[in-house]
Amino acid sequence: MITVEKVTIATVAERAGVSRQTVSNVINTPEVVRAETRERVRAAITSLGYRVNQAARQMRTGRSRLIAVRIESGSDGINGSVLDRFLHGLTDAATLAGYRVMLYTAADDADEIATYDDLLTAHDLDGFVLTSTHHGDPRTSWLAARDVPFVTFGRPWGAPDTHSWVDVDNDAGTLAATKHLLKAGHRRIGFLGWPRGSGVGDARRTGWAAAMTAAGLDVTGLSVAVIDGVDSGAEAAGRFPDDLTAVVCASDSLALGALRALPGRAVIGFDDTAVAHAIGLTSVSQPLAEAAARCMHLLTELLDGRAPATSTQLLLPPSLVVRQTA
């Protein structure tokens, strides 16, 4: 009979060459451990297959170690992958912190709030990570009124910063994309985006407009808005002036449409999806794994009573991935 030795914190500590307390800190309070040591301990945890004893931990803390996040349907199978990558990162970060992630679906804000009520009753959840924040978002106030811990991936868009959030600097992304085109000699650069009122979409348009204005260029007639999608993007791109030489887009889906409708023009997308990799589309990449890890860290601070007296807001910089289209 083959016996398998139980992996404990002591086993991980020995493998990583640290104390048991350091291993415990990496699991429960990673911010107090140096980054190099943290990575060494996490590598040992992974290689040994160590798992936190959730039953014992729940008895000790009185918590379920279970958090929930909404999974959204991808409208065209392209941009939906962005939140998929965020969820993957969140699950990784939650596992390292000794939490499990429950996924749920909802048709709209009202349906999601009703789901909160059901989940909190049925599963004794510790908290939520919210995505797709927007103007007038009622979800945060509902959770806050009931003292349910949560953080958001996305800022509150016009509402006061009363809760902790992590977001990507959308303005900076399209600003960098437009500057790249300007440096390449383009002067008639259009923006293909979403109808006004979307916080993310408006921010992405702002970055493009700021770069164009700073270069002394007129943006009149160079911005076209449409519902997200490849076909809609292709149709909308046909409305640009004939002398347009380049387009910055609010998504990779719109960029694919622009490539179809405007052959020979430089095109830049946003989100750096797998499709962008496959076809050589220059695109703005979001640091989704880092955003997920930061969200999880902020949530565990709340749950452990270690959060600062005021809410924390983190704005992460995106990066431009240059390929063949621009």
Automatic annotation (TrEMBL):
Alphabetized UniProt keyword annotations: DNA-binding, Transcription, Transcription regulation
Q: Which residues form the HTH lacI-type domain?
A: 7-61
Q: Where is the signal peptide?
A: none
Provide a Gene Ontology MF annotation, just one.
DNA-binding transcription factor activity
Q: Which Gene3D superfamilies match?
A: 3.40.50.2300, lambda repressor-like DNA-binding domains
Q: What is this protein called?
A: LacI family transcriptional regulator
